[in-house]
Specification:
InterPro entries: DprA (IPR003488), DrpA_SLOG (IPR057666). Belongs to the DprA/Smf family. This is DNA protecting protein DprA. It contains 13 helices and nine strands. The chain has 297 residues and is of the alpha/beta class. A nine-stranded mixed beta sheet has the order 1-2-6-5-4-3-7-8-9, sandwiched between helices. Helix 8 packs parallel to helix 9 and helix 10 packs across helix 11. The longest helix is centred in the middle third of the chain and has 16 residues.
Length: 297
């Protein structure tokens, strides 16, 4: 089987020991992903990849079947995008450590480069206030043509996705697991609704990848990275939503925080963000104005 340059990206994405930053250095040094993949052990050691990592990579490369992996993607109808693809999110090329590969499920990959992507994130343990506020804001954003981006976690993420679907809008779920691992499993129905009807499910992690301690925080950079702005609806100061907000700030994106009851623990994070200068979002219009979305389509 003849492999394209793009196909060799998959090997590095699956290996896992060589992240986006190292992959970029390897590709620049050897001239292509193919040549980096085929490099000798001597050459890999020469560029200070390290003896342990080099040995692990050589072993992995010798046991990995790119042909079988590509056939499995085709069987599961999983697409994959790399930096040279038209549908690869151009905004991700502006951030630190853009994913080597984005695995994609859904019928409309063009959504990834729409101009009106808005991330809506928050606590897994939302209050009634948080649920109602999320539904109101997402409905308003969707009516204006925005695509809702979130992480398909319990709580605010799930509410954001579901509300977008109910409003006949589009939504993108960014997973912290392999593209085919539904987590939490209680979102099985939501996962397939997004894939078959309302948008895309994407992940930088290959099929079969189970979540780790770092995989969810790392995927948050993609949530904020593909979006024009990030809206935080409830969350403690240590929550994953706050990690997403920090990524958004580092990426030069707008951050919006929904004010909440001062005596509510779930308002701790949003209160902190507002004190630090985040945009206050009491409704969808505040977000639309802050992002300068001035037309319906």
């Amino acid at each position: 089987m003849n492999f394209s340059e793009k196909d060799y990206y998959l090997g590095f994405a699956v290996f896992g020991g060589i992240g986006p930053a190292r992959f970029k250095l390897l590709k620049e040094y050897f001239g292509s992903a193919k040549d980096a993949w085929m490099a000798s052990e001597k050459d890999l050691l020469t560029i200070n990849l390290g003896k342990k990592l080099t040995s692990e990579f050589i072993y992995f490369r010798g046991n990995f079947s790119l042909t079988s992996f590509l056939k499995n993607l085709e069987k599961k109808k999983i697409n994959f995008l790399t930096e040279g693809d038209r549908d690869y999110p151009q905004k991700l090329l502006q951030i630190d450590a853009p994913p080597i590969v984005l695995f994609v499920l859904g019928n409309n990959p063009q959504l990834l480069n729409k101009k009106r992507l808005v991330a809506v994130v928050g606590t897994r343990l939302n209050t009634v206030y948080g649920k109602n506020t999320c539904r109101t804001i997402v409905s308003g954003l969707t009516a204006f043509g925005a695509v809702i981006v979130s992480g398909m976690a319990k709580g605010i993420d799930t509410i954001a996705h579901r509300t977008a679907i109910e409003a006949n809008g589009a939504t993108i779920a960014v997973l912290g697991t392999g593209i085919d691992i539904i987590y939490p499993f209680s979102n099985y129905g939501l996962y397939w609704q997004i894939v078959n009807k309302s948008g895309l499910v994407i992940s930088e992690y290959p099929p079969g990848f189970t979540p780790t301690r770092t995989s969810f925080p790392l995927r948050n950079r993609i949530i904020s990275g593909i979006s024009e702005g990030t809206v935080v609806i409830e969350g403690k100061k240590t929550s994953g939503a706050m990690i997403t907000a920090r990524y958004a700030l580092d990426q030069g994106r707008e951050v919006f925080a929904v004010p909440g009851p001062v005596n509510s623990p779930t308002s701790e994070g949003t209160t902190y963000l507002i004190k630090q200068g985040a945009n206050v979002a009491s409704n969808a219009q505040d977000i639309l104005d802050g992002l300068k979305f001035d037309k319906r389509k």
